[in-house]
Specification:
heterodimer, A: ABC transporter involved in vitamin B12 uptake, BtuC, globular, B: ABC transporter involved in vitamin B12 uptake, BtuC, 3 domains, 19 helices, 4 strands
Chain lengths: 315, 484
């Protein structure tokens, strides 16, 4: 058994999983409140990655940053969170709110349109080339944790820690604050919440802001760790984030975190081992097959996800 | 406020029609649109089918360019795809995001039964039905994975299926990866090969007629009625003892089968299959076709597919693209601003005057803003040249825009359009529309026209959002009233 490889794959999986968990959280929150699949969520992440890239270039680039590196990263994440938060609010305001009372499929098609529009706008403005964060110049690859077989680049630690911190903050927000209470009430029954004096529209806007800000942060983290970004990257992260949310139990915060890590680890491990396991028949690109099979298995055996409760239809 | 409807004691009230509906229908019957619609309702199905098919049937008689014939074959394939997607999306209200994978599956299955690479050469009259059934079964199997909660979960599973399909087709060795499979055998019916482009056109046309007839009958059948009931209220349908999940899976499978037929016709017409022909861009384009024409209406979906495909073709050529952009813009304004009647001409005239004034002012005080020339060479561009702001060097002749001005203007335009939708007062809205339209023309000339391949998808995305917000029933669909 090659322990070094296993450890590296686990580290990869946790990094990837943190990103998926952040995407899944935003997606899951919106679904919980509006019962709407926000198919444009992945593209919000992509815009976040581009905002981070823009801030990086504006502050001197990776080779010669004009501020301290930690401050640079914080600024990139904050700018992406703010930008994406407002993007999410705009998407809600213009694409989803006019369709609150439309048939269920209308906002979904609108979401497809938003996704396509955002993607192609970025393509129009930035071109089809991959952009690089050049994060190896930003932080040397040797810097980090080096304990025996465990070699973790510091930026990966940053990704994991900041994702965990954001999830903790979100958890506290939802369970301990008035806004969180309003969000939970809205997601249980929107009309009853409105009758209890909760400004439902405002809760929805705030939910979109928070969810999209998380996706924007995830976009910057993706750029920092995996280096290159382009206009189409949102599709993959969005898809895996949706899957993570479904596997974890849609609408549940611990579910989204756990689902994200689960999908991230499954993907990383299958990238590493699928070739050996299938005697060289399938290459590492087929890791998606494993994730898809996990999704289908959950759909068949436990459609409410790990942490979800079975849906009860009320009339 | 409520005026009692005219008394008609001699008429029996129709079932499901109360006084309000009856009076609304009476008012509608007096308008021109209402009369056309009623005449359309009364026309027998065979006549409608003939009217729908006739333009396609006579089209090749007027065309002798290979390019146009190729476009026409592709258009018919797209019409088939849109009709197939319409079953799940328009009739049942399911979001099927893996639809394109079934199209690809049909095409690859054709490659598997009729190519030198596979070493088989099946006759088409056997291959096409076999492919249709296989793909329909594949659709059934995929749909049944999320049978307990078909709906939003189905969207995720099917989207993932599309992604998986692309991954497998690009990376697997048996499909030869991104190189695709080429030199497919042509379609062969009863020993006669289809060789010419016209031949493929008529074969696809025949498939179109059969599919439309099939769908029409299906829609009128018990199953079709059950589908529509299901779309309107799933719970009520279930209480009426409809097998909800089985009906959904059926719709899913029928749509997939039609996509399979389209794929089996598309592959030999192209002579080759490549995995990247079946990606998410195609998926969203087909959604745009279904939604534009009016989800749920066979006629609307057909027209939508033709319109979108023709526009996409025209938009790939800068000269045609400019003409189309201005004509479509004027038509859209005329269609959207119908009330009050003076609004549309006032806005269009105002925009024209506004443009000339701005252009004149710029020429006098900031000549650098008008030094450029239009990218397109069509007749309309000469006129436009003395109307829009075109700084020199924003569009280089080899096509790529440089500089931030055009890009900033683009973002400004998006923001301006969004802001305009928030203006409630119709007078202010019309007034605000004038500079926004002008800005749109400037952005078009400075940025979009140089990258038509991207610009057309930007427009499709914007169209999907706009249609859903302002006219969710599409051009030819009936408005559905949601009863809360």
């Amino acid at each position: 058994m090659d322990w070094d490889k296993l450890v590296q794959l686990l580290v990869n999986g946790v990094t990837l999983g943190s990103v998926y968990a952040l995407v899944a959280l935003g997606f899951s929150m919106v679904y919980g409140i509006l019962k709407l699949l926000n198919l444009a969520h992945g593209d919000v992440l992509m815009v976040g990655a581009f905002i981070g890239w823009g801030v990086l270039g504006w502050l001197g680039g990776a080779q010669d940053p004009s501020v301290a590196v930690w401050l640079l990263i914080v600024l990139m994440v904050l700018a992406a969170m703010a930008g994406c938060g407002f993007l999410g609010v705009a998407i809600e305001r213009f694409a989803y709110r006019p369709l609150r009372r439309a048939p269920r499929i209308a906002p979904l098609i609108s979401a497809l349109g938003v996704s396509f529009f955002v993607q192609n706008s970025v393509l129009l403005l930035f071109g089809a080339n991959f952009r690089s964060y050049e994060s190896f110049d930003l932080v040397d690859v040797e810097v980090g944790i080096n304990w025996g077989p465990l070699n973790v680049w510091i930026l990966r630690v940053v990704v994991f820690v900041s994702a965990a911190a954001m999830m903790l903050a979100l958890w506290l927000l939802v369970t301990r604050t008035k806004l969180g209470k309003a969000m939970r009430a809205t997601s249980i029954d929107r009309e009853a919440a409105a009758m209890m004096g909760i400004d439902v529209d405002r809760v929805i806007v705030k939910t979109f802001f928070i969810g999209s800000a998380l996706a924007g942060a995830a976009g910057v983290l993706v750029g920092l760790v995996f280096g290159s970004i382009n206009h189409f990257m949102g599709f993959n992260y969005g898809l895996k984030g949706f899957t993570a949310a479904v596997v974890g139990g849609i609408g549940s915060i611990p579910g989204a975190m756990f689902g994200g890590l689960f999908i991230g680890l499954a993907e990383a491990l299958s990238v590493g081992y699928i070739e050996d396991a299938t005697f060289g028949r399938l290459g590492s690109a087929f890791s998606d097959l494993v994730v898809f099979l996990i999704l289908v298995a959950f759909m068949l055996l436990r459609p409410q996800g790990i942490f979800g409760k079975p849906e009860v239809k009320k009339v | 406020m409520t005026t009692p409807p005219p008394e008609k004691p001699d008429e029996q009230p129709r079932i499901g029609v109360d006084e309000w509906v009856a009076s609304a229908e009476e008012r509608r019957a007096r308008t021109l649109v209402g009369r056309i619609e009623d005449a359309y309702e009364r026309t027998p199905a065979a006549v409608k089918l003939l009217a729908l098919a006739l333009p396609f049937a006579i089209f090749p008689l007027f065309v002798d360019s290979d390019y146009l014939m190729q476009v026409a074959v592709d258009t018919l394939v797209f019409v088939l795809l849109a009709l197939g997607l319409n079953v799940a999306v328009g009739w049942v209200g399911l979001l099927d995001l893996g639809f394109v994978a079934f199209f690809g599956l049909g095409a690859y299955l054709y490659a598997a039964v009729a190519s030198p690479y596979a070493g088989r050469d099946w006759e088409a009259e056997f291959a096409i039905p076999a492919i249709a059934i296989t793909v329909a079964v594949a659709g059934f199997l995929l749909g049944s994975t999320s049978r307990r909660l078909v709906g939003d979960y189905l969207a995720i599973v099917t989207l993932f299926f599309l992604q998986l399909w692309l991954v497998v087709m690009v990376n697997a060795s048996f499909t030869r990866g991104p190189n695709g499979i080429s030199d497919l055998y042509p379609l062969e019916f009863f020993g006669r090969e289809v060789v010419s482009l016209e031949g493929y056109y008529y074969v696809t046309f025949a498939a179109f007629v059969l599919v439309v007839a099939f769908l029409y009958l299906l829609n009128r059948s018990r199953t079709g009625r059950a589908w529509r009931a299901l779309r309107e209220d799933e719970l009520a349908a279930e209480l009426m003892t409809m097998p909800v999940n089985r009906l959904k899976l059926m719709a899913f499978a029928v749509g997939a089968g039609i996509a399979g037929v389209a794929g089996a016709l598309y592959a030999p017409a192209q002579g080759a299959v490549f995995p990247l022909n079946f990606d998410i861009v195609l998926l969203i384009t087909i959604y745009a076709m279904v939604v534009l024409g009016g989800a749920g209406s066979i006629f609307g979906v057909t027209v939508g597919a033709v319109l979108i495909n023709a526009s996409l073709e025209a938009l790939s050529e800068p000269d045609d693209a400019s003409t189309l952009f201005y004509v479509a813009g004027v038509l859209a304004i005329l269609a959207l601003l119908r009330r009050p009647s003076w609004a549309a001409p006032a806005v269009l005239g105002g925009t024209a005057v506004f443009g000339f004034v701005v252009h004149e002012a710029a020429e006098r005080w900031r000549p650098s803003l008008v030094e450029g020339t239009t990218f397109g060479q069509a007749r309309i561009d000469e006129l436009v040249d003395s109307w829009v702001l075109l700084p020199e060097g924003i569009v280089t002749q080899d096509g790529l825009p440089d500089g931030a001005t055009g890009k900033l203007a683009y973002l400004g335009l998006v923001a301006a359009i969004l802001a305009l939708t928030l203006v409630r007062n119709p007078l202010w809205r019309a007034a605000g529309l004038v500079p926004v339209l002008y800005l749109a023309a400037c952005v078009w000339e400075n940025l979009l026209v140089a990258q038509p391949a991207v610009a057309r998808f930007v427009l499709i995305g914007a169209m999907l959002v706009g249609l859903m917000a302002f006219r969710p029933q599409g051009l030819f669909g009936r408005q559905r009233v949601e009863v809360v």
